[in-house]
């Protein structure tokens, strides 16, 4: 089984910064894309940022220029550097990763972390 362990969430003032991390563990054969989603109360879950195995990235328009996604393949970890945070960024942030396990006859599938709360408030 795969576990995605997230960390780095918390309370920060507007204009502040946080760095989220998500480490995947298990009998992993390979990891394809990795990304971050968020869900605010009363709203649908939305893609924040994603990164491919080759390093290609894409971002939601609302976070471009403020957030940066990166990955460390040796550690099976994806990061989200969040700068110039706004109250509108308040949400539960979820790690998502497309992973193929050793011996998985179905190939890669998507896995989710448990979510970490990010609150931007003064």
Question: Any overview of this molecule?
Answer:
It is a single chain. With 122 residues, this protein is mainly β. 0% of the residues lie in helices and 57% in strands. It has strands at 3-7, 10-12, 18-25, 28-39, 46-51, 57-59, 67-72, 77-82, 91-101, 109-112, 116-120. The strands form 2 sheets. Strands 2, 4, 5, 6, 9, 10 and 11 form a 7-stranded mixed beta sheet that branches. The termini are far apart.
Question: SSE layout and pairings?
Answer:
Elements: E1 3-7, E2 10-12, E3 18-25, E4 28-39, E5 46-51, E6 57-59, E7 67-72, E8 77-82, E9 91-101, E10 109-112, E11 116-120
Parallel strand pairs: 2-11
Antiparallel strand pairs: 1-3, 3-8, 4-5, 4-9, 5-6, 7-8, 9-10, 9-11
Can you describe this structure in just a few lines?
By secondary structure, this protein is mainly β.
Helix share, percent: under 10%
What's the main sheet like? Answer: 7 strands, mixed
Instruction: Give the CA-CA distance, first to last residue.
Output: 40 Å
Number of strands: 11
Low-confidence stretches: none
* Quaternary form: single chain
**SS-based class:** mainly beta
Instruction: Note the run of SSEs as H and E.
Output: EEEEEEEEEEE
Radius of gyration: 14 Å
Question: Quick check: average pLDDT?
Answer: 96
Strand content: over 45%
- Total helical elements: 0
Label the overall shape.
elongated
């Amino acid at each position: 089984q795969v576990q995605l362990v997230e960390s780095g969430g918390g309370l920060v003032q507007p204009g502040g910064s946080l760095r989220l991390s998500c480490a995947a563990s298990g009998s992993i054969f390979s990891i394809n894309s990795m990304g971050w989603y968020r869900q605010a109360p009363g709203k649908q879950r939305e893609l924040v940022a994603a990164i491919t195995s080759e390093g290609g990235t894409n971002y939601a328009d609302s976070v471009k220029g403020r957030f940066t996604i990166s990955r460390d393949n040796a550690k099976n970890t994806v990061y989200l550097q969040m700068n110039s945070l706004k109250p509108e960024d308040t949400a539960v942030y979820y790690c998502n990763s497309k992973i193929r396990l050793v011996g998985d006859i179905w190939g890669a599938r998507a896995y989710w972390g448990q979510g970490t709360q990010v609150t931007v408030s003064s």
